[in-house]
Amino acid sequence: MARCIFHIDLDAFFVSAEQMLNPKLKGKPVIVGGDPERRGVVASASYEARPFGIHAGLPLSKKKVNSFFSGIQGIL
């Protein structure tokens, strides 16, 4: 039996879902995560957000996340 290995990048999955629901977000740096006041972390980051050092698992309380996104919450 032949063995087949798949590598699927699901790191941007939640952002892709948000961008599909809200096309205004396409091409913009977007993060999806929990509440920064309650130990939230980045669940998903768009490829546009990655040059700013944003990635999945990054605590939302980090200065790098807060300085770039400056408290924007919800969908614009």
3D structure, described in words:
With 76 residues, this protein is α+β, with helices and mostly antiparallel strands. The chain has one domain (13-69): MutS, DNA mismatch repair protein, domain I (3-Layer(aba) Sandwich), CATH 3.40.1170.60. 21% of the residues lie in helices and 9% in strands. The chain is built from 2 helices and 2 strands; from the N terminus they run αββα. The chain has helices spanning 13-21, 63-69, and strands spanning 31-33, 42-45. Strands 1-2 form a two-stranded antiparallel ribbon. A hairpin with an 8-residue loop joins strand 1 (31-33) and strand 2 (42-45). The longest helix is centred in the first third of the chain and has 9 residues, at 13-21. It is globular, with a radius of gyration of 14 Å. The termini are far apart. The mean pLDDT is 79.
